[in-house]
Amino acid sequence: MKRSSTIVLTLVPAFAAACGNSTPALDPCLPQNYAPAACEYAVQNRGYYYGGAWYPHVYTQPFFFYNNAYTGYVARGGRVMPIEAGRYSPSLSGGSATAGRTTTRGGFGSSGAARAFSGGGFSSGG
């Protein structure tokens, strides 16, 4: 039995690598692919979308640090590979960085959400 688990453990990473996306995600805050709006979103939301997939990443510096790093990189003659803005969106078709997100209000399913939007959730003490 131990032998079969060893085989499975070696096959799973190989299978995952074969099925994975062949294009690596490009961090929008790196100087060579810097995208200001996508970088600012990534810093604020601890990650970024690339090719429709979410990549979590905790940035240790504020947004202006990455902006300054890009400026210095370009000033020193660094080569920049521009990435189309649509690659940094939740869907492959483009759109805004918050497209497709929903906010649930009320906390009790559809009835709670309906009450939150209708304003009937709470009464004032008067």
Per DSSP E runs of 2 or more residues, the count of β-strands stands at 2
User: Regions with pLDDT < 50 over 5+ consecutive residues?
Assistant: 6-19, 93-124
Q: In percent, how much strand structure appears in the residues? A: 5-15%
Compute the separation of the termini in Å.
71 Å
Helix content: 40-55%
The residue-averaged pLDDT reads: 71
List the helices and strands and how they pair.
Layout (H helix, E strand, L loop, with lengths): L1 H18 L16 H10 L1 E4 L2 E4 L6 H13 L33 H10 L8
Antiparallel strand pairs: 1-2
Written description of the protein model:
- The chain is mainly alpha-helical and 126 residues long.
- It has a domain at 28-96.
- Helices cover 40% and strands 6% of the residues.
- It contains 4 helices and 2 strands, in the order H-H-E-E-H-H.
- The protein has a two-stranded antiparallel sheet with strand order 1-2.
- It is globular and about 35 Å long.
Highlighted features:
126 residues, mainly alpha, globular
Short description:
The chain is built from 4 helices and 2 strands.
